């Protein structure tokens, strides 16, 4: 009795009825056949044969023969008597048994009324109330003191032990409840803290008993939207832990790197260093960021695949976007802790550039989410057999368009600057103006679209910049409009050039130019035409007397930059203007009196002048040179 | 185009709660909607129906006859309005006068009848029998020119009957458009019903709900491009039944009585 009372829940192992049948068989054989030796196959067969031939009714027949002696009436009498006797005995036995049963039942009904009632006869039930009979031990034989003492101490010990075990069980239960309450309190406090931070806490759809927190983005692709829900589970000590299911635990992020040649020159930084990695809040944040980043990369991949025609290549975990011949942007999904590329050279400017791309792709994905919300809340089109495919989000295209546009602007600006420098050194005053990204500046307030969306939308529209210049000849100017279309074909950048040359009204360049060389050729040609047209006007300001002495220039072959001057005495000169990005050159050649091509005196009458940008030499200006060349 | 529908009646005190439940279910804010609805009745022009004649009844003639002598229907012309259009500034008598005479311009009103966009909505009587658990009907709509629609409608053989206003909130749940709405009536003295659409709207407060208790109707609709496509129709009804299951604890969506949605003109 030292151990606490316990009930075994295991099934009792039943003992076999016949532990071993062989000893019993031997005993049976001994009893039946006398000795074991008597028993053999032959005797057994004989016995079986004998049993077969024996008439089973033989013995009865013998009895019948004996009784046949008795008289028939006597036999009947005796039969009835015996039968009555048997019935009487049976009835008596039944009555006594019922009396005994009733008695015992009545006695039992004192203590177990329900059970005893079932075995009572209806008569007893109506005659005597339940529990009306009791039995007690009357005058028990006196027990020896030692026995009494034993019983007393045993029962006391028994009771003490039971009290002890009950107390310890209660204590155990109490402490267990206490820890449970503590951990539940802790759990719920943490859940409350999560809720107070503004997270959406809800019941898990498939697991009604568990709580979950939703951190994902409702407008994301269903694949990622459904992942934005994690269960808030309780560990044994009550602290909260985030059960994200099968999602990899590592925090991941999209990394943007700049590649120049074979070297990595810039790398984007991680958005937020986890300051308190253990708190539930930061874990939720991390989970949210990871879902977002994975979706971002998924969408970038999806978009990159349709951009193959524009040189974008994809690897298993890498997207490469070419910017120029040497430069590339690399996008890949990496673990948060190794987001820094060890090979990357330290270059803060490139880092900033990579960072800005990294921010842009995230802003554009969020914008795409907003567009999804907008689309989702519009009345849907009628159900048709063909589902609308979800278009690829515009994430890479606007960035590529912007970068492409920017490089074109830079190129055109440097061309303009070069031309301006050349012209300036020649003393020609031209006015160049540029309005870069003028399509972005026109942000119209719209009541239907929120400001943030309107801001992002501007970058998805075709980007446009305008360059314009007024040239030397009064009223002549040109205008270049650069347009880059990110989303709709024709992709790429196009130059719309419009020229206004009063001297050559029929000169109009093709309006849609895509190649930089062509643009450069067109612009230098236009400027050259303008200079050629300006030469005959040089003398207009001079007095009549002076102009009489001078040769007056006529534009002969404007597109070749050739001018002719006929003096009063038949003397003629030819001027050739050639302009390139780097220099402006003017040759004048004196021609023969008869206008023949052969120069009369090449050495004395050939003049040439070249102006280059940025050279600080004191050179005659164009007008001075023309004036000089105009001397007969 | 076919339209599959389920309806439920929502009492006014349940309205707010149901709005919140639907907001949660569809994960969107309710879009408030106010619509003017004009009812037009098709009239048969005399002299057109008697094209029967001769033995040369080709297939075209048969079709033409069918079109001309077929059922006549009521149609609705729906125009979205905003609450600001219901001018609260003008006094009730003025606006009533305006609505009675129909042509007076009351100064200070922001509602411009001439730039009101309209949409013609035709709804057939619901199909009989086949899908008894859902209301399915042929539906078609077309945009109409802005402004006064009565002349063009008259030219097409429709005459103006009456008009009312529908106020409600729209939710979109995947392919299903959920419209929780009620019908509002203009206050009109008996015997003075106008014979053309109002050019001036009365104050919003003067409109009274058709259902005196102020209860709302919840309508869940899904449109199918091709009603002959059994597969699509089945998918659409399954979507609606899914919604019915989801809303089971809040409202009981069921099909409407076919004859109550009868649009045929007798």
TrEMBL record, chain A:
Region (Disordered), start-end ranges: 1-24, 47-73
Family: Belongs to the Mediator complex subunit 17 family.
Record's function text: Component of the Mediator complex, a coactivator involved in the regulated transcription of nearly all RNA polymerase II-dependent genes. Mediator functions as a bridge to convey information from gene-specific regulatory proteins to the basal RNA polymerase II transcription machinery. Mediator is recruited to promoters by direct interactions with regulatory proteins and serves as a scaffold for the assembly of a functional preinitiation complex with RNA polymerase II and the general transcription factors.
Keywords of the record: Activator, Nucleus, Transcription, Transcription regulation
Molecular functions (GO terms): transcription coregulator activity
Record organism: Aspergillus mulundensis
GO biological process terms, semicolon-separated: regulation of transcription by RNA polymerase II
Phylogenetic classification of the source organism: Eukaryota, Fungi, Dikarya, Ascomycota, Pezizomycotina
Protein localization: Nucleus
Record-level GO cellular component terms: core mediator complex; mediator complex
Protein name: Mediator of RNA polymerase II transcription subunit 17
One of the Pfam families matching this protein, by short name: Med17
UniProt key word Transcription: yes
This protein's record includes keyword Transcription: yes
Gene responsible for this protein: MED17
Basic and acidic residues: bias regions: 11-23, 47-56
Subunit structure: Component of the Mediator complex.
Automatic annotation (TrEMBL), chain B:
GO BP: regulation of transcription by RNA polymerase II; termination of RNA polymerase II transcription
Residue ranges, compositional bias (Low complexity): 90-101
Principal location listed in the UniProt entry: nucleus
Cellular component per GO, a single term: core mediator complex
The keyword Transcription regulation belongs to this UniProt entry's keyword annotation: yes
Alphabetical UniProt keywords: Activator, Nucleus, Transcription, Transcription regulation
UniProt superkingdom: Eukaryota
Compartments where found: Nucleus
Keyword field contains Metal-binding: no
InterPro entries xref list: Mediator_Med18 (IPR019095)
Region described as Disordered: 85-111
Record-level Gene Ontology MF annotations: transcription coregulator activity
Any Pfam family hit: Med18
Biological role stated in the UniProt entry: Component of the Mediator complex, a coactivator involved in the regulated transcription of nearly all RNA polymerase II-dependent genes. Mediator functions as a bridge to convey information from gene-specific regulatory proteins to the basal RNA polymerase II transcription machinery. Mediator is recruited to promoters by direct interactions with regulatory proteins and serves as a scaffold for the assembly of a functional preinitiation complex with RNA polymerase II and the general transcription factors.
PANTHER family, per the entry: MEDIATOR OF RNA POLYMERASE II TRANSCRIPTION SUBUNIT 18, MEDIATOR OF RNA POLYMERASE II TRANSCRIPTION, SUBUNIT 18
Subunit structure: Component of the Mediator complex.
Similarity comment: Belongs to the Mediator complex subunit 18 family.
Protein name, as recorded: Mediator of RNA polymerase II transcription subunit 18
Name of the gene: MED18
